[in-house]
Write a structure and sequence with these properties.
The complex is a heterodimer of chains A (114) and B (113).
Chain A: E1 3-6, E2 10-14, E3 19-21, E4 23-26, E5 31-38, E6 45-50, E7 56-58, E8 64-68, E9 73-78, E10 87-95, E11 103-104, E12 108-113
Parallel strand pairs in A: 2-12
Antiparallel strand pairs in A: 1-4, 3-9, 5-6, 5-10, 7-8, 8-9, 10-11, 10-12
Chain B: E1 4-7, E2 10-13, E3 19-25, E4 31-37, E5 43-51, E6 54-57, E7 64-66, E8 76-78, E9 87-94, E10 103-104, E11 108-112
Parallel strand pairs in B: 2-11
Antiparallel strand pairs in B: 1-3, 3-8, 4-5, 4-9, 5-6, 7-8, 9-10, 9-11
Classes of the chains: A mainly beta (114), B mainly beta (113).
Chain lengths: 114, 113
């Protein structure tokens, strides 16, 4: 069965530190990959996605993620975090094709100290 | 303003009572989903519907029911058979293709009195 693993459940950083959140999935076929963010008190929103082409994708607010097919990974990065990046981050995967059902990771809670 | 409207924002249920959570969308999306979010457990899929008059069980469908009579609407009923209903419930929609992201409503927080 497909699954998504997010390695870090809670991350605490100081402002200007670099961020990398890990995401690995288990599925042998072609996939679509997503990172979502949930700011405190707000709805889940898309940060970035990958479905084909350049494996390094850029999203909103300076985030980027790299798809490494050989490692089944889609790690999220940001060179310098801000206090406003404090949020819950979710990685999600589905198989390419007609299946629109997403498989979700458990999420990573990021706290950025000013 | 296009989007997904979930109501109510907060809901309280007495023991033995069924309650219905509303989800309405004006994005003209075919697929709609209901998730339950609990701390540390991510999003768990309750039910989803890819077309009108059709829906499938997700991973934790027991104690829940849905209907999809209109494209715009996908209400979720939390029945008295759901033994631990206190949670944050999220409705999402998506378009035709698997590479399109899901869009989310603001959620409904259900609590037991």
């Amino acid at each position: 069965a497909q699954s998504v693993s997010q390695h870090n459940h809670h991350v605490i950083l100081s402002e200007a530190a670099s961020l990398e959140l890990g995401c690995n999935y288990s599925y042998g076929g072609t996939v679509n990959l997503f990172w979502y963010v949930q700011y405190p008190g707000q709805h889940l929103q898309l940060l970035l996605k990958y479905f084909s082409g350049d494996p390094l994708v850029k999203g909103i607010k300076g985030f980027e993620a790299e798809f490494i097919k050989s490692k089944f990974s889609f790690n999220l990065r940001k060179p310098s975090v801000q206090w406003s990046d404090t949020a819950e981050y979710f990685c999600a995967v589905n198989s390419a094709g007609n299946n629109r059902k997403l498989i979700w990771g458990l999420g990573t809670s990021l706290a950025v100290n000013p | 303003d296009g989007g997904i409207t979930q109501s109510p924002k907060y809901l309280f249920r007495k023991e033995g009572q069924n309650v219905t959570l509303s989800c309405e969308q004006n994005l003209n999306h075919d697929a709609m989903y209901w998730y339950r979010q609990d701390p540390g457990q991510g999003l768990r899929l309750i039910y989803y519907s890819q077309i009108v008059n059709d829906f499938q069980k997700g991973d934790i469908a027991e104690g829940y029911s849905v209907s999809r009579e209109k494209k715009e609407s996908f209400p979720l009923t939390v029945t008295s058979a759901q033994k631990n209903p206190t949670a944050f419930y999220l409705c999402a929609t998506t378009g035709l293709y698997s590479n399109q992201p899901q869009h989310f409503g603001d959620g409904t927080r259900l609590s037991i009195l």
